[in-house]
Amino acid sequence: MGTTQLEPVPEPKYWHLKTVLTEALDSEFSVGEILPNERDLAARFGVARATLRQALEQLELEGRLQRRRGVGTTVAPPRMGVAVGSEQHTWPGAAGDDWQPTDCTLAVPPAAVADLLETGRDGQVHTVRRFRMTHGQPVAAELLYVPDSSVPALSAIDAPSGAARARAVLRELQRLALEGQDQAVELGSAGAEDARELDRLPGAPVLLVTTRFHAEGRTAAVSVATYRADTCRLTFGASGGVEIHHDPQRHAS
Amino acid sequence: MGTTQLEPVPEPKYWHLKTVLTEALDSEFSVGEILPNERDLAARFGVARATLRQALEQLELEGRLQRRRGVGTTVAPPRMGVAVGSEQHTWPGAAGDDWQPTDCTLAVPPAAVADLLETGRDGQVHTVRRFRMTHGQPVAAELLYVPDSSVPALSAIDAPSGAARARAVLRELQRLALEGQDQAVELGSAGAEDARELDRLPGAPVLLVTTRFHAEGRTAAVSVATYRADTCRLTFGASGGVEIHHDPQRHAS
């Protein structure tokens, strides 16, 4: 209240601070380096702790910073390009797939998945849990929903659950002729189980990829994969990825 | 401290609250309805305001709630499926495109874009600004970077800037034979200008889609599009979208 603002200020304070911090990250810090604590940073930039925290949150959203329990805030490496959609459609579990099946249960899927599979709201489907490692890091967790009608030859003699059962379901799925797939990407927050597997806190922002697999003129399987939004850039297309660490605010100096 | 917890609590409080709130949203509220204020909600669920706020933030991330200035917190409609990648590749501005060009300037692109276009860190490129409306709502803002070499016949007589110039650049681009494209999706935060156009606060979570267009054996143009993460589900694939409002936590009742 004691100062007079001569010009309109179109940007909130934390937004300006974010820009200043981004420049400091580019010029003074290297990947993996631990940032000074919040008190020192707030003092250096002459802002309130709350403003600083908002700016740090933005930089975390943009993948520039990582906050890790017991470590503090570090400068993040560039995001990894992770191939999600390619022009050659293949079934989950096909050769070259970098997903690891860990479990399989019979369960009632979420209502929206049940509607796609036309299994009815109370019908159980094979639910394969897989996760994906890239460069030794867990990047995604998946639930793959497969109705009985898509794996008719699946034998009850196969392992009733666990990774062996998951592999049996995937193997049977390969027998169907895949006609196509479509995908959707949206923002979500990590559920408790996904968070644990992805080494994130519950509620952390994630990218949800829903893939619908078409065979025999219907939706033969639905995959819902949860990707870490902090470390992953999802790529689509023939070349397997746009090699760009994107930052629309950063210009050539 | 006065109560004894007999069981380990693996989930943070706000996460549990989020689950409870989700059920309340499903059963008691309809789309567009304004939620009670934070004080009343906190009292109803017997939690601290800070816990409530965290849970509301999660639900906003998941697209279940919208917070709007001057209105309050409302129950969000299901996200819109917005087609981002299709199997038929076309140039920006091709027939059927629902983007509106608004401006075109000559500018030095971000360093990462300059590297893809091989225009050098100080080279200026035609920078077309467009935005996209779906169902009367702005859903995305785009910067399309086109080097001179991709539009060699572009005349200086054409409008020097503005929407007319943008249309001239797009028209010239159509002359090149498009060989393919690839795309990447990642989480970002809205810059000040994008935020204004998309009716969001600066720093709001957005989905950044980077598209590289290939022609004449090189990258002929790069588009960086900022999609509202609260209202959009980005779809990829032939059928134009997975018709699913995804919520991995919500199961059939």
TrEMBL record, chains A, B:
Keyword Ribosomal protein assigned: no
The entry's keywords: DNA-binding, Transcription, Transcription regulation
GO BP, sorted A to Z: negative regulation of DNA-templated transcription
Name of this protein: GntR family transcriptional regulator
The keyword Transcription regulation appears for this protein: yes
SMART domains in the cross-refs: HTH_GNTR, UTRA
Molecular-function annotations in GO: DNA binding; DNA-binding transcription factor activity
SUPFAM superfamilies membership: Chorismate lyase-like (SSF64288), Winged helix' DNA-binding domain (SSF46785)
Domain HTH gntR-type stretches: 11-78
Lineage top rank: taxon: Bacteria
Annotated PROSITE patterns: HTH_GNTR (PS50949)
Classification via Pfam families: GntR, UTRA
